[in-house]
Amino acid sequence: MRLAVNIDHIATLRNARGEQEPDPVVAALLAEKFGAAGIVCHLREDRRHIKDHDLARLRQAVTTKLDLEMAMTAELQQIALKTKPELITLVPEKREELTTEGGFNIARHYDVLAEYLKPFNAKGIEVSLFIEPEKKAIDLAAHAGADMVELHTGAYAQKKLDEVRAVELNRIREAAVYARSLGLKVVAGHGLNYLNISPFKDIVEIEEVSIGHAIIARAVLTGLEEAVREMLRIIQ
Fold this sequence. Notes:
This protein is an alpha/beta fold.
C-alpha cells in the first residue's frame, strides 16, 4: 500500500503568522524523500491554507505525484488545466467547514460532471472523485469518466466501538472490491491516523491512502521523517 501525504496544514501553520515558514514545498520534498508516493494539496476557494503560488511551486518541485484536491468550479478547472497535476480529486466544499465533510454528491452534479471532466481526460490528467463507499456513487463515478475513486473513511474513523467500526470497515472493503471490478483505481482517506489505519493494509483493492492531519500533527512532536516513516511501517 502506498502513502500520499497531504501538506495543507504546513500551510495552515505558516499562515497563522503570515510569514514564510514552514514552507509546504519543503515539506513536500521531505515527505517524498522519506517515502511518500505522492503529495496532496487542496486549493480551497477561500485559499485558507494552500495559495496559488504554493500550487505553482509544488508543480515544479514534486517528482512523485501531485494530487490537487478541488471543488468543481470553473475557476479551479482552469487553474488545474494550467498547472497539470498528475491527478485531480473533486471534493465537496463548504466555506464554513473545518475540513471536508462527506463525499462528493455525484447524483446531484452528474448532469454537468461528465462535461466538466472531459478537458482533464483530453490532457491526460487523471480524475478521482472523493465519494462515500456506496455502489451507486461508484457506478456514477465510472459512467462519468473518472479514473479513480477515493473512498471517504470519515465515518469509520469517527466510530469508537469496535463492532460499529467493523461494520464501516466492511462497507469500505465491499465498495473497494466493487470499484475495482469496474476497472477503477481505489484509494482511501479522511480521518485516518496511526491508531486506526492498520486494518486497511489487508484490503488489497485499496492501493493508496491519503493522510494529512495525523502526519503533520505527529511531525510537530517527532519530526516529519519519523512521522512519515512510522506511517509507512504500519501500512506496509
